[in-house]
Amino acid sequence: MMIKRALFLLLLSSAGLASAAQLTDMETRWLTAGSAVLGYAKQELKLPIDITVQPQARPTDVPLALGFQDGRCKLVLSMRGNANAEDVLAGVPAEQQALMIEAMVAHEIGHCWRYAQGVWHVLPAGFEEPSQPALEQAQALRLTRREEGFADLVALAWTQHRHPQQYTAVAAWMRQVRQPASAAGSHGTLAWLRLAPSGAAFNPAQPLFEQAASLWRQGLLRDE
Description:
mainly alpha; 2 domains; Peptidase
């Protein structure tokens, strides 16, 4: 616990937050749950990540999101005044909630990695999509869904790496969260989640993001 606390305080300091006293209990709980992911991203991957806390959430804000500004990833917490901030955890046993939050943070780090690599909305080699100006809105939706699919696979690869005994619970929860989204929606990622029903879908000999990328490319073939 001392090591985790030290890492948490380091993250806050490097993100421009002076102390944990500035955070609400909910914000502290979420950042603590995600501290191992954030530490890996900042220390091992050297990803440029800042933590931003919204002073007041807007009606459409989700509790955790990632943006990109001036070459840096912005992990945005929108929990203050957000009565629905933890709806995503409804039905999750209290003892498993930190695990699901950690998976959500890993998902956002997947987005950050794509941004930092300069491949946001870029298809991998061998994939080509014809330009269809009349269908620009549908194409934009598809591009976003593909990024969400990649990030979901990063979350599962991370879970298999850190918590293999809990993989089944996390994967089932993610499928449940994604289920309401229509297949054509921006978060309709079931085509990718179904490729990883168990942790055996990931190759531990590969780097974490390549584990996700291998399955992601397979999912692209199904996302027509």
